[in-house]
Design brief:
single chain; mainly alpha; 6 helices; elongated
């Protein structure tokens, strides 16, 4: 009798273990990754890094601080930019004259931050009431 109880207990334990292993194995999946998706993700990360490096200049940082925007908020907002917003920002940066690039870029970034505050996506400027 004791031999039957231990076999039954072992069978229940093995059933539970195999069921759990089956569930764990089904969560893993693999799929083909399109080359264009990989390139666009790399390009997006590269563009964000370039934008951050452009905003690392001392005069731009001072102006942001004068406007009451912390550098950490800027980095967080840049990380949150979509590919379309970043493309628009990049297109506007290319159109700006060389001497006015920093001021124009700063104005555009502040405008983007202001619009996202109005839409209620972020809360950087305390004087802006969200439209929601």
């Amino acid at each position: 009798m004791k031999f039957n109880k231990s076999r039954k207990l072992a069978a229940i334990f093995m059933s539970v273990l195999l069921s759990w292993m089956g569930l764990a194995a089904t969560t893993a999946s693999a799929a083909m990754v399109d080359t264009s998706v990989t390139i666009s993700e790399y390009s997006l990360a590269e563009d964000k890094a370039a934008l951050k490096s452009a905003l690392d200049r001392d005069d731009v940082r001072e102006r942001l601080l004068d406007l009451g925007i912390s550098i950490d908020d800027v980095d967080t907002r840049i990380d949150a930019l979509t590919a379309d917003e970043l493309a628009s920002l990049k297109a506007n940066m290319d159109d700006m004259p060389a001497g006015a690039g920093a001021v124009g870029l700063l104005a555009f970034v502040v405008l983007v931050f202001f619009i996202t505050d109005v839409l209620g996506i972020t809360d950087i400027f305390p004087f802006v009431n969200a439209a929601n």
